[in-house]
Design goal:
It is built from 3 helices and 19 strands. The chain has helices at residues 2-38, 223-234, 243-251; strands at residues 42-55, 59-61, 74-86, 90-94, 98-106, 111-126, 135-140, 143-147, 151-159, 162-171, 173-178, 190-193, 196-202, 207-209, 214-215, 254-260, 263-270, 288-289, 301-306. Strand 9 and strand 10 form a beta hairpin.
Length: 307
């Protein structure tokens, strides 16, 4: 009789254990599934050079590939190359001598990524259109940019005390708003479309656009940016420039145009890194070419005659 009771007891225990195991598996499955959908990935995708990541309470750390980043981290690249990955479809390519602060809230499906560009320039590649409740912003001292899915470049610099922000759009569309010195944001937005760029300036008097959006001046973009665009196109993106066009800009040869009185006087084709020759003939008896002929040619160049 006792053996019969013990047998029933063992069966009951086995059933309870089995049910507990099943419930544990179900709980783990749904928790993992939830975390997988909500987890916001921020990491160093690629790093090779000199730079740092400054974490609150931990000081500066040397970056490394697959290093996990957190909201509030300041990321700096001095020399070399660095790419960050947000979620699994947003790539941030650094110019050299660039620093940013990352701010990320919520999840991939319902959250916000904000990049405070503190110095230098970044190329942003948002590969999938953002969900309705998500946003991606890049902020500079005098402007803010918001996108839903695009490839664009933002660069900040200063000349003679005037602060500039350059925005180039290679795919999609970017909405730009002015940010004034007191921190207020202009209600009016300027839409910069594929193949266009715009520059914002801030001086002692005002913050405004230098001009309406115009065609991108490819010759003035850094080689690192052009190389990043080659990578993006190779990964399947359709940008406002082709691989062959990028190669010609990066590798040359380049066209040097000599201008006199607003008209073309002569042209030369020069290989990258070589020097252009002084034309044999002068367009006028007085004056000279406004150029240092000891400087190597690194892009398509226009040289003006100055009287």
């Amino acid at each position: 009789m006792a053996e019969k009771k013990n047998g029933k007891k063992r069966i009951l225990i086995a059933i309870i254990v089995a049910v507990a195991v099943v419930l544990a598996v179900v709980v783990v499955f749904f928790v993992f599934k939830k975390k997988k959908g909500e987890y916001r990935l921020l990491k160093v995708f690629e790093f090779d050079g000199e730079g740092s990541v400054e974490k609150k309470g931990k000081g500066k750390i040397t970056p490394y590939n697959n290093m996990v980043l957190s909201s509030g981290d300041k990321v700096m690249l001095d020399t070399g190359k660095m790419t960050l990955l947000a979620d699994d479809d947003k790539y941030i390519y650094f110019d050299q001598h660039t620093s940013i602060e990352l701010v990320a809230t919520g999840s991939k499906k319902n959250g916000k990524i904000k990049i405070e560009l503190l110095k230098g320039g970044i190329t942003n590649d948002i590969r999938n259109k953002l969900p309705v409740d998500s946003s991606y912003e890049v902020n500079t001292p005098n402007s803010t940019m918001s996108v839903r899915g695009t490839v664009f470049y933002v660069y900040i610099y200063e000349i003679d005390g005037v602060k500039y922000t350059r925005v180039c759009v290679f795919d999609g569309q970017v909405a730009v708003r002015l940010v004034y010195k007191d921190g207020t944001v202009d209600d009016e937005e300027v839409l910069v479309s594929k193949g266009k760029e715009v520059t914002i300036y801030e001086d002692e008097v005002t913050t405004n656009y230098l001009a309406d959006p115009s065609d991108i001046d490819w010759d003035t973009l850094p080689d690192d940016v052009l190389v990043n665009l080659q990578t993006i196109i190779t990964d399947g993106r359709d940008l406002s420039i082709t691989l062959d066009e990028l190669k010609a800009i990066i590798e040359g040869p380049y066209e040097v145009t000599f201008m006199y009185d607003g008209k073309e006087f002569a042209t030369q084709t020069v290989k990258k890194g070589e020097k252009v020759s002084v034309p044999k003939f002068c367009p006028a008896a007085t004056g000279d070419w406004d150029y240092d002929f000891d400087e190597p040619i690194e892009q398509n160049t226009v040289i003006e005659w100055q009287n």
